[in-house]
């Protein structure tokens, strides 16, 4: 289970403030549980875990295995909830550097850089060392099937696939979209592409445990059954004993009520950087409505202590901080001893980087609390598929509960349309 430590935030709140917020969080949890809150038609991310569909997990795993055996490159074409969850898990559990001979995952469709597309097409067109062409698979993910960034990139990539593989391209293109509607479904009908469905009752940012996230994650070689059942376990545990998630929601809500406007969400594990980006969308699109919500700012430590650390320590006191910790070391890499000790680092000889990093976390936490930043720490035991699955569901449930505390519908994102409207007008779309 995800562990929650709010002791670094409590000194900033009175008992009365905590009690009031706790009542609100308990009420919000009941709304989620009984589907009685606004937007309750979007609770499919819970039903998914209540009654797991092993057949779909199996189907995704075996397709992923076949792709892994044949592919050199797997392109995930999507934006927002259609790629952030997969990227988060792949980076959390994968390798920092490409492993030779291993399949390469490339992201596309998440911006409109022509230079990126140009270079991507050149890159996948390059021959392998033995002179043979690269084997490329393309997974386009779009719930609406109409998102401009994704659709534009898919148009170019699909053309490249057809030019390169001819009719066989149909076996190499996999579409993940809604059951019906959208341009993507028309292409699927016309060209017979393989299709995975995003359930109607699950919004993009809550969709990582559907084929949206699971196919790319499985293609990356991660055990999706373990990931999924890690989430199922967390779901079951929190239905029984929601104390941890309620504590975090209570604290964050009480701090927001006191004027905190930014939640700096950081980890001392750089492999969790993209996980922070996933949390950023999950919270940002859920809570940022009606003039309410905290800005979710993702940081990666200790890197950002050398850029944002000053701001967090002494800047405007309008922020709180959420640390995401992993208790167990992910490597035993050690500081070696040096005979001459010119760099004066021998006092650290024999220690692991993990041990030093833990001290950096503890020191940072202490300093930030002293500097007036309330701190909450969320911890998982190990960085593996099971615990990352737990963390995913923890954040999903937390988001729903916390946003209901604000009396906001967590599941829509009406504001995102504003820029699209203005952009399409400028582009002359009919
Ligand atoms: O999956 P799609 O329909 O392409 O949507 C991709 C993303 O774009 C939108 O503008 C939404 O704000 C996001 O919530 C969504 O995840």
From TrEMBL:
Its EC number is 5.3.1.9. Its main location: cytoplasm. It is found in: Cytoplasm. It comes from the Bacteria. Pathway: Carbohydrate biosynthesis; gluconeogenesis; Carbohydrate degradation; glycolysis; D-glyceraldehyde 3-phosphate and glycerone phosphate from D-glucose: step 2/4. SUPFAM superfamilies: SIS domain. GO terms for biological process: gluconeogenesis; glucose 6-phosphate metabolic process; glycolytic process. NCBIfam families: PRK14097.1. Belongs to the GPI family. This is Glucose-6-phosphate isomerase. It comes from Halalkalibaculum roseum. The gene is pgi.
């Amino acid at each position: 289970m995800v562990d929650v430590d709010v002791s670094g935030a409590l000194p900033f709140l009175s008992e009365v403030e905590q009690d009031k917020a706790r009542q609100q969080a308990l009420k919000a949890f009941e709304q989620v549980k009984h589907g009685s809150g606004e937007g309750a038609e979007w609770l499919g991310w819970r039903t998914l875990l209540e009654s797991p569909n092993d057949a779909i997990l199996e189907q995704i795993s075996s397709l992923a295995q076949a792709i892994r055996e044949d592919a050199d490159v797997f392109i995930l074409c999507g934006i927002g909830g259609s790629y952030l969850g997969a990227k988060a898990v792949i980076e959390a559990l994968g390798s920092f550097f490409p492993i030779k001979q291993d399949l390469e995952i490339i992201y596309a469709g998440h911006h409109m850089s022509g230079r990126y597309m140009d270079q991507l097409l050149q890159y996948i067109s390059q021959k392998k060392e033995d002179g043979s062409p690269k084997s490329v698979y393309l997974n386009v993910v779009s719930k609406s099937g109409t998102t401009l960034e994704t659709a534009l990139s898919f148009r170019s990539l699909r053309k490249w696939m057809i030019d390169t593989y001819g009719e066989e391209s149909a076996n190499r293109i996999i579409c993940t979209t809604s059951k019906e509607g959208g341009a993507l479904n028309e292409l699927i009908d016309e060209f017979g592409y393989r299709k995975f469905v995003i359930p109607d009752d699950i919004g993009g940012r809550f969709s990582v445990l559907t084929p949206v996230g699971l196919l790319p994650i499985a293609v990356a070689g991660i055990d999706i059954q373990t990931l999924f059942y890690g989430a199922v376990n967390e779901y079951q545990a929190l239905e029984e004993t929601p104390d941890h998630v309620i504590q975090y929601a209570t604290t964050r809500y009480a701090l927001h009520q006191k004027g905190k406007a930014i939640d700096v969400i950081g980890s001392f594990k750089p492999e969790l950087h993209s996980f922070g980006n996933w949390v950023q969308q999950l919270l940002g699109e859920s809570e940022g409505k009606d003039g309410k919500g905290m800005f979710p700012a993702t940081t990666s430590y200790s890197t950002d202590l050398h850029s944002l650390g000053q701001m967090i320590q002494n800047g405007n006191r309008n922020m709180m901080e959420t640390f995401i910790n992993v208790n167990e070391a992910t490597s035993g890499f050690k500081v070696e001893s040096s005979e001459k000790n010119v760099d004066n680092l021998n006092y650290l000889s024999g220690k692991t980087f993990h041990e030093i990093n833990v001290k950096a976390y503890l020191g940072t936490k202490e300093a930030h609390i002293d500097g007036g930043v309330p701190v909450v720490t969320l911890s998982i035991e190990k960085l593996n598929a099971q615990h990352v699955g737990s963390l995913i569901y923890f954040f999903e449930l937390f988001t729903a509960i916390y946003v209901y505390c604000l009396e906001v519908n967590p599941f829509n994102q009406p504001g995102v349309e504003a820029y699209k409207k203005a952009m399409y007008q400028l582009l002359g779309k009919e």
